[in-house]
Amino acid sequence: METDLTTLAAGLAIGLGALGPGIGIGLLVSAAMHAIGRNPEAAPQIQTNMILGIVFAEAIAIYALVVALILKFV
Asked: Which residues touch 12 (CB under 8 Å, ≥6 apart)?
């Protein structure tokens, strides 16, 4: 029974932990594409900032994965 609860906790940790960054990345890329569409000359600067934002958002999901793995195996 304890194994089932830790598996459920790990699944919820990664599921909910990836939900926020997934939505954030989608909004970030959408806003960047609109900005590039309005001002194509600024595309390199917008793209650099977009990639940096994606990296920070993805780091949150990696933290959730680490927590899920700790819950599962410790």
From this structure: none
Domain of 46 in residue numbering reads as 2-73
Query: Whole-angstrom Cα distance, residue 39 to residue 41?
Result: 6
SS3 1: coil
For 8-63, write each residue's pLDDT tens digit.
999 999 999 999 999 999 999 999 999 999 999 999 999 999 999 999 999 999 99
Classified as helix, coil or strand, 69 is helix
CATH label of the domain that carries residue 25: 1.20.20.10
Q: How far is CA 48 from the centre of its chain?
A: 17
Q: pLDDT band at 70, cuts 50/70/90?
A: very high
Q: Write the burial class of residue 68 (CB in 10 Å: 0-12 exposed, 13-18 middle, 19+ buried).
A: buried
